[in-house]
Every structure is written in C-alpha cells, then in structure tokens.
Amino acid sequence: KAKKASGGRGLLKAPAWESTPEGVAAGQAAAVDLARRLHGRSSASTAGAPTDDDECTYGPSGIGLYLGQEEAARLLALEERASLAADGGYNSASSSAGDAQGGDSPGGGGGGAFRPAERAACAAVFRGDYVAAARTTLGSGDGPVPPDLLAACVGGGRDLFASVAREQADRLERRGEHQRAALLHLSLHDVVAALGSLRRGGFIRDAAALAAARLHPGDEVLVAVRRELAAAEETRGGMEAAAKAHLAAGRPAAAVRALTRRTLGGARAAAEVALTCGLRGEPERLAVLRAATECAEMGDVEGARSVIGRWREGTTEGEGGE
C-alpha cells in the first residue's frame, strides 16, 4: 500500500497574509486582472505579460501560475532564487559533505561504508556489468536504491537507467517521498509521470506549476491539473486562488461562483469577471445585482449604475439571455 506523502512542504505556499482583508482584496483584483488578460488573448486584443515579480509569484496578487509557459517558468525561477537566499546558497548547503574524508586510510570517513549487497553491486560496476549491478541493488531490498548506485546505472545506457529510475520512483512513492519520485521521472523527461507522482502525494500546486511550465497550453493534462488545483484551493478556503485556477482551466462560470462566496468585495469581483468573460447566466445576473447593491450601500451610486448598465448593454447586444 502506498504511503501517504511525507510532511514536506511543496514549492509553492500560500502566504500568511492571504486571508487578511488586504490579501482578499488583492486576490479579487488579481482574479479580475487574469480574466481580462485571458479574455484579451482569446479576442482581437492582446494581453501583456506580468510586468513585475510580484505578479508572477504565487499568492494573492500573483497570476504567473495561471498564464503561459514563460510566466510559469518565471514563477519557478523566483521560487528557486528565494529558496537559495533562505538557505544561504549552494556552497553552504554542501559544505558539510565536502569536509568528509574518504579513501582506504584508517582516518578515512567510515560512515559511508558499503553494505554487502552494495559491495557486490560496486564490484559489478567495476567490471562493467551494469545490468548485474542493477539486479543486485534492486534485489537486496524493497527500499530506495542508494543514490550513488542509481547514478552508476547511467553507465549501462538509457534503457537500463530508465528501468531502474522508474522502479526507484515507485519505491520513493511507497515511502511517501512523492517530490523525489517526480524528480526521477523528470530525469527521463516524463512530465506526465512526474505530475502523477505529485498529484498522488497531494502536491497539487507543484503539479500545476510543472504542468504550466512544461505542457502545451491546450494539453488536456494541464487543464485537468488546473481543475484539481481549483478544487484544492476551494477546499482550503482560498476562493480567490480557486477563481484564478478556474479561469486558467477555462471555467469562468466556476470562477464567478468561487468569488461570490466571499462576503466582502466578492460580488463586485465576480460581476467584473462575469462581464469581462461575457457570461449571461442566472448566477452571473445575481452576482451583478449583488455587486450593484454593495456599491449602493457603500455610497458608490455611479458604480452601481455602471455595473447594471454594462449588464443591460450586454443583454441588448445579443450575448445571450438571462
């Protein structure tokens, strides 16, 4: 039976301020902005790419995860930079490993001594029999293969390494190490298998980032991952993030429903998305009415008239009935 994913965090994490009034407002504004960009891309107008790093990050104001490959790659580059800054860079992370002494001398580091099966596999590698090394390593237990022996299998050719790497990925998943399993699949350029590992482990945001960066915008797998992301965001109460995921998945009506679940400002954002995307259903009509009511209650009479007027203009222009 597969083990549940370990408690490690994913690459993308919702910031603490997301649920504050400021975060909610920023998320609503970003959802409207995303709707305008996506709507622009599907019409004669063109939508510009995010202009600053804040727009590409994951969070209330971020939309990079929901656009194209370039924006998703920029999002991942920003996360990479932030992780290195928090960890002090590559050198500090590997300094302890570089201090270890190896060799046959009595003073050499003995902490890395081979187990019997590993010694047998090592001997097979020494004599150039990579198939025997892989067979010995995999047959010595059901746990993950030591990384040095896994790397040695590269010497046996791509087919051998691919076979061992896939088995290693399965073993890592059984231990709950789904992110490491995904990395192994990516070493074989198998993006779909990597997405499967991440999704089974519950790392749906990581899966969405990977899919957006590596798959064609019209790929059915990308759409499915974004729908799964939207459901996960709704489950945790991140309605603005869910709305953005729904928009990216081509489901603007679901985005409207997600936004209307917020009491403060939600109806106005939902109405704006509905009007931008040309939605004319009953839920959208109610969102527009709620938005007009909110505007009127806040003393914004012109805003109330504007949203009602835009809805009526859309109806008379033949964009669909109510």
TrEMBL record:
One of its GO terms (biological process) is spliceosomal snRNP assembly. Residues 1-24, 39-60, 88-113 are annotated as: Disordered. Transmembrane segments: none annotated. It comes from the Eukaryota. GO terms for cellular component: nucleus; SMN complex. GO terms for molecular function: mRNA 3'-UTR binding. Residues 150-298 form the Gem-associated protein 5 TPR domain. Residues 100-113 have a biased composition (Gly residues). PANTHER family: GEM-ASSOCIATED PROTEIN 5. This is Gem-associated protein 5 TPR domain-containing protein. It comes from Micromonas pusilla. The lineage of its organism: Eukaryota, Viridiplantae, Chlorophyta, Mamiellophyceae, Mamiellales.
